[in-house]
Write a structure and sequence with these properties.
Layout (H helix, E strand, L loop, with lengths): L5 H8 L22 E12 L3 E2 L2 E2 L10 E15 L2 E14 L12 E5 L1 E15 L2 E14 L16 E12 L4 E13 L8 E11 L4 E11 L8 H5 L12 E12 L5 E14 L5 E10 L17
Amino acid sequence: MKPLYSFFTLFLITLFPFVVIGQSTFDVFFPKKGESSLALGFTSKSYEKFYRGTTLTDGNPADFGNINSRIFSIYGTYSLSDQMTAIINLPFISVENENGVPDPVQAVTQVNALQDLSLGIKRKLLSKKLNTSLLTAAAGAVWRFPVGKYEEAGILSVGSGAFSIEGIAMLQYQIQGGFFAELQGGYSLRRNKDFDTPNAFIGEFKIGFAHSLFYLGTSIGLQNSASSFDIGSEEFGMRGGPASLPETEVDYTVLNINGYVPIGKSGVGITAGYGKVLDGRNAGAESYITAGIVISGTSFNKSTAPPRYILGY
């Protein structure tokens, strides 16, 4: 089996963790101890329709027109050992509507704020060779907490304002030539002192091809929140309408496509991607494009040796 290069796994870890809906924080590639990476990303999101409950509307509320978001994100990893990697992510988000209509709760036409700091760690639990393939199991946990002083209520809010802890189980199957399939599933516990933000089941299925010259992958991500009320329901109105949005049941299924190309052997690479919500509940029918630069390998670490193989066969 042709192995994947260790420097490339760093890039896989950092592909598009830029607060795009339905994109997992983790993958099941593990770099060598002491290796690190840094990704700077930009994401542009937009939607002109949203799901009121499970019904797709013809337009956004309050004559907003398109609701557009720009996200600037910094994402870093550090390998504590060959089996354990730490992750940090912090996004800055700007959101506005195209018609310049004030938010009914916040009374502003644009919101700019740091969102939530994410601190994560993942660990390899099992790696077993199966003829010319490799089966890997891993687990991870992410802590997210607001660091920007943003208002969580309202249509133009940049986040729910909830502190959350996510536990994720992951399984990956690699086959000869660089093809792989990956399955993830987990649960997110969410707490907000002002709102009853629902917990949620989260998952992702990913397939892709990884090579030293490029990476291409696609995934289906989903969230299924604990039972709560819908936008437009009687309870929604009783709880304050848009002021109660952090408490609504938010479900979605989203398609993500992303890729990566290195710039020579510099340890620097370029990433790009596209995503679209396929179905949802109390969520924007959004699509997005994203791009970023990743610094890793010899440009970020002291060693200048050629990339090492991560698979021991």
